Amino acid sequence: MGEKRNIALAGNPNTGKSSLFNLLTGLNQHVGNFPGVTVDKRTGECRLGPGHAAGVLDLPGTYSIFPRSADERIVWEVLGNAAHPDHPQLVVVAADASNLERNLLLFTQLHDLGLPLILALTMPDMALERGSMVDVQALSFHLGVPVVVVNGRTGEGLDDLKSLLMSDIPAPRAFRFCVTDLLTLADQPEAQIRDTEWRYSRIREILRKCQVRKDSNQDTASLRSRLDRFFVHPVWGYLVFVGLLMLIFQLIFRFAEYPMEWIEGAFLALSRLAADYLPAGVFTDLLSEGVIPGIGGVVIFIPQIALLFFILSILEESGYMARVVFIMDKLVRPFGLNGKSVVPLVSSVACAIPGIMSTRTIPSWKDRLITILVAPLMSCSARLPVFMLMIRLVVPDGNLWGFFDLRGAVLFAMYALGVISAIAVAWVFGKIIRTGEQGFLLMELPAYQLPRLRYVFLHVREKAGVFVTDAGKVILAISIVLWVLASYGPPGQMNRALESMKQAHPEWSPDSPEYKEALAAVRLEHSFIGIIGRGIEPVIQPLGYDWKIGIALITSFAAREVFVGSMATIYSVGEDFEEGLVERLRDERYPDSGQPVYTLASGLSLMVFYVYAMQCMSTLAIVRRETRSWKWPLVQLLYMGVLAYAGAWITFVTFS
Amino acid sequence: MEGKALSLRALSVLRPGEGGIVSVVASHHLAPKLVEMGLFPGKEVKVLFRAPFGGPMAVEIGGGYTLSLREDEAMLVLLDPENF
What we know:
The structure holds 2 protein chains of 2 kinds.
Chain A: E1 5-11, H1 17-25, E2 29-33, E3 40-49, E4 52-58, H2 70-80, E5 90-96, H3 100-112, E6 117-122, H4 124-130, H5 136-143, E7 147-149, H6 158-166, H7 189-210, H8 218-231, H9 236-255, H10 257-277, H11 282-299, H12 302-318, H13 320-332, H14 342-347, H15 352-357, H16 365-374, H17 384-394, E8 399-400, E9 404-405, H18 406-432, E10 443-445, H19 453-487, H20 491-504, H21 513-525, H22 528-535, H23 537-540, H24 547-555, H25 562-570, H26 577-587, H27 600-612, H28 617-627, H29 631-655
Helix pairs in contact in A: 3-7, 5-7, 9-12, 10-11, 11-19, 12-19, 16-18, 17-18, 17-26, 17-27, 18-27, 19-28, 20-21, 22-24, 24-25, 27-29, 28-29
Chain B: H1 2-6, E1 9-10, E2 19-25, H2 31-36, E3 44-50, E4 57-61, E5 65-69, H3 71-74, E6 77-81
Antiparallel strand pairs in B: 1-6, 2-3, 2-6, 3-4, 4-5
């Protein structure tokens, strides 16, 4: 068996480079990251034949070797520096056959770096349709490297590419296209422009010799322009977008709910199984109450992430997403956002995690960072149980101005508050955050095409995998810490409380449900979290909360919806808490004054608190993953905490 | 030559359907990027459509592909209007 070759795939964005990568590696691919930067490193293994395999690195798409973003800098570093650990022995340049001129710019640059190259012409069907297919042999002759045509859709030509990958490709004669040493031009924009112009004139010359001009198919061109006119229309364009969003949310809420329930049920059953069959003890408790629910808390997000990315990548693949960016850019720019921020923000209404993961497409770091920072302000589905509980508790069933359902109006107000705050905060961050770079749009509007399901599924698998492996570790660690804090407390205090509970109700047998519920309540109350909850009472009193709410606030840091479960435990209303909890909370009064704890003022205040507070460790974990630092999740935790406190206080004072 | 320089128009002021030949790309930090994306002198371009409310414009670059750019980005590209 020969030595394993390292191959890199390079090319412009939207050239079918990724489908080429998928064709070569199949499911043998892995997403990691380049050290120190937020760029995904997609690698895989390709079986070339008996005894022959190659490691394939899918480099980020770029139009030129001169970097203008973190992604493009990776290409520059990997290919420009022979000492780089990922420097390949061979580069396959993917080039869109229907748009060769621009695609060949990167090719000529890589050529002049002296790298052994193969040129893979992709999208031959589109080139044939447009009548711009070149003479492949002539092109190979003029460029001085092997040229192969590969159809990413059908896989046609893949075997030719694979056999080329096994053969010996010599490094090309350097400086064939230009006389300057590219590596010296990194910081010289004027020289870069001259170099690029010269390359384009050489490319045009070569293409003139290789072009086989035929009549283009006017039908597809006119279909495309008709679709474009519709999707960017001042009325229809926005209506289609809004309609599509409604449809997406319907799909997510309708279909993600079932697998989420199954996952919840399965992990609950697994916890019980562990508790019942393993020998009782600290280790079993840790497993059944800490680790298993912790893993469950990670897995529960997968249906939403998978479904959202399934839809998003179909929209991206089809070419529609670029049109959304196109029509939304002007509307969101005054607020420090980019047209490409719109879809991540809207996705965050389902769940901020996939929303934040989809900010990768925003080219400017500042625009992307602001989008990440404000995305969790969009009210996600996990806030809904909290809102519903509070609305049923404190908002009377009635009408607003005769025709709006009052409860519905309050729910809408909470969502609107989130959206308005996200926009306002984006504007403020836009003024505060100073980076040298200036945001730009400058993007290709890709041709419309039918999405390839295979590619869509690989994308979904990749995103879900990244979430589980990267964010999952942090989430699991925090859940175990929270479990320890909620299960243990100073033993003396805990035992005294348990004794006094037993004395107060000597009639309860240790197996009765009343006993178990009361036990859980006492244990939580006297655990470390309970003590912290009591400790913060003076701090949260101005917001209209008592120490029991304080405990629920702390436990729900794991995830917002935990709030409802914690309230059920604290008030020991047992498993069927839906109705019981609302009744129980309604009767709750301050022991000293006899005033009810849950009033319109304190209930609204609590809802506003949940609109703002960063009560989601999974989001913090994914922000850390996407920004590669703890700085930004901490900034987020802090600013959202301040907003939550201030907003809740103002609400409480206003409605008291 | 003098007369020709005066007749140059910025890409940003063109209406859909209008086009020309790229003559100069103004000096700006985005200039190398614009040239790399195909807006080099001598290239024929045509405005296809514009986004509503003064948003970005879609420009066909020499029959090869469609580029979308903001108005202030298109301002950097000066065209020699071609028989319009």
